Amino acid sequence: MFKKFILASSLLIAAGCTTVPITGRRQLSLVSDSEMLTLSNQEYQKTLSISKLSTNASQTAMVKRVGLRIQHAVEEYMAQTNNTAALAGYQWEFNLVEDKQVNAWCMPGGKVVVYTGILPITQDENGLAVVLGHEISHAVAKHGSERMSDQLVAQYGGAALQTVTGGNPSVAGSMLMTAVGAGSQLGLLHFSRQQESEADHLGLIFMAMAGYNPETAVAFWQRMAAQSQGGTPAFLSDHPADQQRIADIQRLMPEAQKYYKPR
Length: 263
Prior knowledge:
There is one protein chain. This protein has a three-stranded mixed β-sheet with strand order 3-5-4, with helices on both faces. It has a two-stranded antiparallel sheet with strand order 1-2. By secondary structure, the chain is mostly helical. A hairpin with a 6-residue loop joins strand 1 (17-19) and strand 2. The chain is built from eleven helices and five strands, in the order αββααβββαααααααα. Helix 3 crosses helix 9 (193-209) and helix 9 (193-209) runs parallel beside helix 11. The model is unreliable at 1-15, 156-161 and 183-189 (pLDDT under 50).
């Protein structure tokens, strides 16, 4: 029986794999894109309904401007690599929420929230591009779907999402919020170091293609590291911006610079 379970699980995992753009890593994907997008749209609107959107016109415009440039960079990269289908159903949206938390997130489908608490650390458009590039990369790399898939395998033997949730949108939505670390209860998610490294890697490429100098990512993560000394911000999850992360970013810089198109 145990061997049969292992065999079934192995076949399930083999059938439910996708590939992360740029890094080429194979990942488990047991939740369909349509399920993820439907849940994301529902939970994003729910989050906005209980949040206070910033009334600072210049900061709001900056978030939307930088977000749009990163969006176009992602779309350009996917077109160049014949992977436009991976963005099917994306309905990009960028909002600045009045909140002291040092955080930002992106749901599957390009639904982004930036909290005003992170702006003193981003400092300018370049710093914000680091943040948005990183968070959007989590969505593009389907890290939320991967985490939900891992949860389905670990806790439910790989059962389908609807089977686990009973088709209950609130239960499924709660799983999504946990998977992407979004909403009012932040810090729920602890992305793996591998996923964080991928988001750093993809984020550098996308910000460079958007016309933001990837070299500024080093200074941003140094500022985040200094911030974490007073308590780890939610944005850093359980992976503080340590010297290893900065060293990895510096190692990736020559590759990112190849994509850099100053504007």
